[in-house]
Design a protein that fits this description.
Elements lengths: L6 E7 L3 H12 L6 E7 L6 H11 L3 E5 L8 H10 L4 E4 L5 E2 L3 H12 L3 E9 L19 E3 L2 H6 L10 E3 H6 L14 H10 L5 E12 L9 H14 L11 H18 L7
Parallel strand pairs: 1-2, 1-4, 2-3, 6-9
Antiparallel strand pairs: 4-8, 5-9, 6-8, 7-9
Helix pairs in contact: 1-2, 8-9
């Protein structure tokens, strides 16, 4: 692994014109600069494509792929990005989220120092961008709370609040042919399933307990609706097959109860940007 590994960033977009500039700019403004950004547009009907093309003209590290038909789910654009990915690590960012300027630098430093292959970070939630306060981070990893997590931890609760926080060793994905599930039934939980599948192949996973992602609340997000989301999580746990061990059986009820309880606690104690 190089001392300055290339991070390939995948951004799916559909009609995100109102937020795209802030999201792309947060990538450009990273203190860690060895990255490439691929924006996969899911047949937007607003002026997203114009915005994307303008950024690509200004920065050669930015490229785009325009889908001819709308797929209606982020799994397809993400998988296209994974198939096109190059470099050493892959990261994801939604087109309405914003990164802290030091996000990638802290993750890469931890990956190289601790030899981690899967690193997520904390997030803070916002509706109005004016609520975001970007504070300098202490780059000394010894002073930062780092938590390890396992496959079982992820079954108990999806530890990755936002996919925009994840950084993964690209070889781990390539060697095990890992992709997001594109079945429409898994919409809103396809990322959770993907993290579970990745964790089947590595125990070198860490969580940086710092709010390095500013997560935009969307009132139309399906994950906002508690009952449909609970049903989808239970479906996932019921159908999930752990590598070659088959389905997880009656334990799924325990995982579902703990998942539901911890999700409720997260809603109560949600960390708000500027709060």
């Amino acid at each position: 692994m190089r001392t300055n590994p290339l991070v390939y960033i995948i951004m799916p977009n559909y009609n995100g014109a109102d937020y795209l500039r802030a999201s792309i700019s947060s990538v450009i403004n990273q203190s860690y600069q060895n990255w490439k950004l691929l924006i996969v547009d899911d047949c937007s009907t607003d002026n997203s494509v114009e915005i994307i093309k303008n950024f690509a003209k200004q920065d050669s590290r930015i490229s785009y792929h325009l889908l001819r038909e709308n797929t209606g789910r982020p799994a397809v654009p993400r998988n296209i990005g994974l198939r096109m990915a190059e470099g050493d690590y892959v990261a994801f960012i939604d087109s309405d989220d914003i990164w802290h300027p030091e996000k990638l630098q802290l993750q890469i430093s931890l990956a190289l120092n601790g030899q981690y292959s899967f690193i997520a970070t904390g997030v803070c939630h916002f509706v109005d961008e004016d609520a975001i306060s970007v504070k300098p981070m202490d780059g000394n990893l010894a002073n930062i709370s780092i938590k390890k997590y396992s496959h079982k931890d992820m079954l108990i609760k999806n530890r990755i609040i936002s996919g925009s926080s994840a950084l993964i060793d690209l070889s781990l994905i390539r060697d095990n042919e890992l992709f997001f599930k594109e079945d429409m039934r898994y919409r809103a939980v396809e990322d959770y399933l993907f993290w579970l599948k990745v964790l089947e192949f590595t125990d070198k996973c860490a969580f940086i307990d710092l709010p390095l992602v500013f997560y935009r609340h969307s009132l139309t997000s399906i994950s906002k609706s508690k009952l449909p989301m609970a049903k989808k999580v239970f479906m996932l746990l019921s159908e999930y097959e752990y590598n070659d061990r088959g389905r997880i059986g009656l334990e799924r009820f325990v995982y579902f109860l703990t998942y539901t309880f911890l999700s409720m606690m997260n809603r109560i104690f949600v960390k708000k940007c500027g709060g």
